Structure to design on (275 residues):
């Protein structure tokens, strides 16, 4: 086995420290979730004496994490599906369809990326309240679409611009409508980008607290991340149970990246390699 030279050590050592800093919080949380309250009070940094699943069961059942988890799955699935549908259509239109004002609309989407949610929070809440959408699944889904659609449209527009226009022109000559070009050509070609953007959108929606807290104030409709904040207050003296709730919330994201890391990397680089 070849040894690492000094120059490679200069790169490998910081990367190893970065990996350790990333993995350690997850391992620490999992270790705390397996401890009893007494073990945590005596020594919070020691290794758990045994694998105990009681804290996970308490967080899932007694603290209502199961209901919060289902709420998050419903909202995130619907929001990501709507984001990808609207974003892919808008991205295709802005990138490949020639019409007056397309450049201005692209700049509007780009400018919307720099508007923080706190700026539109009050008007959005007022509109949702007037429409009777507060504390409803459609209300939170529409709020996520409003917040993350500019990001989705911008990335998919950049991807579809790399598709040769001759391909679209040939499809139109063959008799395809614009919808036919979108469905038969753009959707299959954009699958890597759609997967990458969909995972990022799902991560944004899953980790959100502010929008969910604003749109879903009642306890029955809380999402998982909002439920964790309430869990911290309910079990302020029981840190292992709180750590179990954090672990439950983080596992879906971790599993998604473990199984789809290659697809994510392919999707991120696909727009730069086509054309």
């Amino acid at each position: 086995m070849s040894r690492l030279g000094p120059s490679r050590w200069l790169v490998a050592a910081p990367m190893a420290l970065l990996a350790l800093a990333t993995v350690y919080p997850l391992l620490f949380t999992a270790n705390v979730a397996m401890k009893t309250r007494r073990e945590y009070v005596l020594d919070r940094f020691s290794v758990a004496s045994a694998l105990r699943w009681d804290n996970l069961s308490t967080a899932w059942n007694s603290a209502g994490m199961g209901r919060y988890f289902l709420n998050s799955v419903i909202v995130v699935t619907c929001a990501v599906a709507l984001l990808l549908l609207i974003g892919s259509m808008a991205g295709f239109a802005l990138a490949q369809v020639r019409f007056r004002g397309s450049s201005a609309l692209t700049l509007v989407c780009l400018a919307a990326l720099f508007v923080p949610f706190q700026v539109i929070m009050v008007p959005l809440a007022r509109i949702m309240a007037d429409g009777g959408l507060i504390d409803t699944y459609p209300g939170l889904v529409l709020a996520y679409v409003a917040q993350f659609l500019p990001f989705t449209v911008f990335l998919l527009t950049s991807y579809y611009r790399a598709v040769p226009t001759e391909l679209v022109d040939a499809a139109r000559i063959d008799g395809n409508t614009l919808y036919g070009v979108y469905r038969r050509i753009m959707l299959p070609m954009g699958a890597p980008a759609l997967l990458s953007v969909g995972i990022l959108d799902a991560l944004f929606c899953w980790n959100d607290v502010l929008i969910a807290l604003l749109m879903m104030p009642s306890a029955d409709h809380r999402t998982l991340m909002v439920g964790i904040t309430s869990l911290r207050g309910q079990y302020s003296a029981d840190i292992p149970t709180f750590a179990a709730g954090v672990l439950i919330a983080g596992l879906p994201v971790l599993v998604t990246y473990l199984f789809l890391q290659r697809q994510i990397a392919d999707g991120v680089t696909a727009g730069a390699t086509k054309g």
Remarks:
- Residues 164 and 275 are 6 Å apart (CA to CA).
- The chain has a mean pLDDT of 83.
- The chain has 13 helices and no strands.
